[in-house]
Here is the input.
Amino acid sequence: MTIPPAQLETIVERLRLGELAWSAVRGGIAYFAVITLLVLVLEARGGKGLSRFRSRTFRNDIAYTVFYRAGIYGVLWGAFFNAFEARLGFLRIDAAVQLPIWIQLAIFWIFGDFINYWVHRIQHTYRGLWVFHSVHHASEELTTLTQNRRHIVERVMNDLCVYVPLLVVLGIPTQAWPILWMVFGMLQALQHAELNWRFGPLYWVVVSPVFHSVHHSAEPEQYDRNFAGMFSFWDLLFGTASPVAERPAHYGVPGLGMSETLSSQFVAPFRMLLKRDEGDAVSSPVDESVRPGHSLRKSAGSWESGT
Here is the structure.
């Protein structure tokens, strides 16, 4: 079936694909040319071997990065909301549309990070959410690109819970969304980098590479700690901050057994959902399992080996 040129032009105009694509290109250039390369250079200068940049893990993380950060994902989100803008109009409050842009962005980052903290914490509490989030924790090495290792189900859920409501409420136009996603990605690029940075006196204010590395620790005593995405004071306020301020020796989820292939990482969460082991700690009540140290990772097991 061939779409007439006039109809195709109408579709492109209605979805505002031109504006979205240009915004994505600008954000993608900033992300790849400035942040990623800069952080990779800093990691290498910090004494981290370049061999890990030739690993299969790193190649897979490049694939995730291209999809989520090169503008593809942001354009798809923007096009979806542009397509259904008329039907979703009742959701638009535009509460901050008259405020200066810097105030809008401050509201977006502070309230967005507050929501993100709780979404992240809940992902470590419920099996149905953890299985998808475990893809991010499966990596046994951290680089700046590890931030993008996300299952599509987790990423869509996160954006529905965190960013889309705020963007709709604030009234920020969709063509600006890819750039906002890129800015947040730039901050996460530092957090996941193998850098021994603590940000000095700001350690308990802004999430640093050392602060977030503890969250990826393979040591059981560090499970369910340091959930914050941008502002580390959330963990202080809600009792999930780790007293350890050193990078862990090992990362990942012992016993998870998730193969280092994109297809395995896509399928594994669904197979884990089908696994029903009696006495699995992941089915504990919220008031019990939300405690720091009571982690789904302790009972992750291996979906491939069945242990």
Remarks:
- The two ends are 50 Å apart (CA to CA).
- Residues 277-294, 300-307 have pLDDT under 50 and may be disordered.
- The CA atoms of residues 139 and 257 lie 11 Å apart.
- DSSP finds twelve helices and no strands in the chain.
